[in-house]
């Protein structure tokens, strides 16, 4: 593949991520560009978008629980 074609594809990918990042910001998804890029890549490789969204929500809930436990000093307690 010629380098001009590669550069063109990279530029197009950046533009797509720019647009998705703006949409993400408007929708208050709290996904940074890197995470958004990873999500797009996963979806392009066949991951179900709804399943991915569910996993992200679950991870956020678990992360919030861990942070709350750390604030309360309950880390490691049953």
UniProtKB/TrEMBL annotation:
<dbReference type="InterPro" id="IPR022214">
    <property type="entry name" value="MZT1"/>
</dbReference>
<comment type="subunit">
    <text>Part of the gamma-tubulin complex.</text>
</comment>
<comment type="function">
    <text>Required for gamma-tubulin complex recruitment to the microtubule organizing center (MTOC).</text>
</comment>
<dbReference type="GO" id="GO:0044732">
    <property type="term" value="C:mitotic spindle pole body"/>
</dbReference>
<keyword id="KW-0206">Cytoskeleton</keyword>
<dbReference type="Pfam" id="PF12554">
    <property type="entry name" value="MOZART1"/>
</dbReference>
<dbReference type="GO" id="GO:0005819">
    <property type="term" value="C:spindle"/>
</dbReference>
<dbReference type="GO" id="GO:0033566">
    <property type="term" value="P:gamma-tubulin complex localization"/>
</dbReference>
<comment type="similarity">
    <text>Belongs to the MOZART1 family.</text>
</comment>
<protein>
    <recommendedName>
        <fullName>Mitotic-spindle organizing protein 1</fullName>
    </recommendedName>
</protein>
<keyword id="KW-0963">Cytoplasm</keyword>
<dbReference type="GO" id="GO:0090307">
    <property type="term" value="P:mitotic spindle assembly"/>
</dbReference>
<dbReference type="GO" id="GO:0031021">
    <property type="term" value="C:interphase microtubule organizing center"/>
</dbReference>
<dbReference type="GO" id="GO:0000931">
    <property type="term" value="C:gamma-tubulin ring complex"/>
</dbReference>
<dbReference type="GO" id="GO:0051415">
    <property type="term" value="P:microtubule nucleation by interphase microtubule organizing center"/>
</dbReference>
